[in-house]
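User: Can you help me understand a structure? I only have the sequence.
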Amino acid sequence: MKEVKISSHRYAKKSCSLDIAGEEQKHHRCHVNIIKNGVESMPHGRTITIQSTENNGKTFIKITDSGVEMTGEPHHERPQNGLGTMAVHSIVKFMRGEMKVESAIGKGTSFTLFIPAVENDHSAKNENGPP
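Assistant: Let's start by predicting it. Here is the structure, written out as C-alpha cells:
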C-alpha cells in the first residue's frame, strides 16, 4: 500500500471560511476527481498539496500532486486523466469559473480553479500568497 500525504494551506490575513458560488456537490466532485487522479498518478505515494485564497471576488483553489505529469492524451500516463479532467472542466465552466492546468516531468501536476466568491461580512481578502 502506498502512502499519500495531503497538505492543506489557506492563505488569508485571518482565519475564515471560503464562500464559493455554486453547488456544494459539484465542488466536491471537482476536488475528488482531481485528488483521485493525483493519488493514482503517484505509484509509490508522495504528496498532494491543496492551497486556497480569495482575491478580487474570486476564490483560488490549487491542487498539486507530485506524480507523473499529464501528457494531454487520455489514459496515457495518468489513470483516467481524460474523463475526470473533462468533468472538472465542465463543472467549473458551468459555475462561471476557470481552470488552469500545469504539468511538468518530475514535478507533477497542478490544477488551479478560479471560482467566483460569494461576498459576505466574514470573508478575508488576501493580496499576497499563492496560488
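Now, to help you interpret it: The first strand starts at residue 4 and ends at 10. The beta strands are 4-10, 46-55, 58-65, 98-104, 108-116. Let me know which part you'd like to focus on.
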